[in-house]
Amino acid sequence: MSDLLQYLITGLGGGCAFALVGSGMVVIHRVTRVVNFAQGSFAVLAAMTTSTLLASGLPHGAAEVLAVAVGAGAGLLVGLVAIGRPGTPPGASLIITLGLAVCAYAVEVLIWGDQPRSFGGVPGAVELAGARFQAHYLLIIGVTLVVFAILAILFARTDVGRALSACASNPYAARVVGISVTRMGLFSFAIGGALGGLAGVLVTPIQLVTFDYDVTLIVGGFAAAILGGLVRPALTLVGGLLLGVAQALVAGYGNAAYQMEVALVLMLAAMIWQAARQPAAQREAA
């Protein structure tokens, strides 16, 4: 029983990283209709930046905040390249983000090398019902829940959130009322960069991060985002947590080598489920 609880807690912590990466993809997609495959690169960039800032003597807190800001800036730059030119179709923007993600490998290796990096998180361990786990997992879970609450408030209660939602539902009508769809799209990329950067900052104390760790994050994040149809952050959170727990159980009771396969199977199942629901929804609308 204690082993199961430990796997659940660690799985929730890992799933939060997938949920944050996936939510960044959701925010970008619902505004621009672009699937951003550079999302995992923001996490790696923020993680590497944090390790450098901490090594230079900057204290915790300041280093992490600056790294998340770097992730947001990187997201904005990716957005400028991907959608900055009016009329760029979403398919072309998707290819652009994929190319930028590959280019990020070269930049990260050039700056930080190819060796894994990590840094300390919340010190100590917690015992709960016989299970023992790092206290940092509680920080990951707590921060993720707060961030998703802020996202819910942003889209439901603020003018900026309403403008983002307007661009998502009807770009033409948004332009008619004076909303700059391109500006809102760039803002969504900046939010996505910040969310990806936050995922990297939170997960690095419990996971060695290398320049290609974005593959794990983007597969897991995309699987979580697919569960929410690439438009619902709340379901993305659920999908990320389910994926994290599933991977932890597979690693604990089976073989950790199959964790990626778990993400791919979940993604495939979610896509089949979404495809099955679409005709039913169309029939109801008719």
UniProtKB/TrEMBL annotation:
It is found in: Cell membrane. InterPro entries: ABC_transp_permease, BCAA_transport_permease. Its main location: membrane. The keyword Metal-binding does not apply. It is a multi-pass membrane protein. CDD domains: TM_PBP1_LivH_like (cd06582). Keywords: Amino-acid transport, Cell membrane, Membrane, Transmembrane, Transmembrane helix, Transport. The chain crosses the membrane at residues 6-28, 40-59, 65-84, 91-113, 133-156, 185-206, 218-244, 256-276. Belongs to the binding-protein-dependent transport system permease family. LivHM subfamily. This is Branched-chain amino acid ABC transporter permease. It comes from Plantactinospora sonchi.
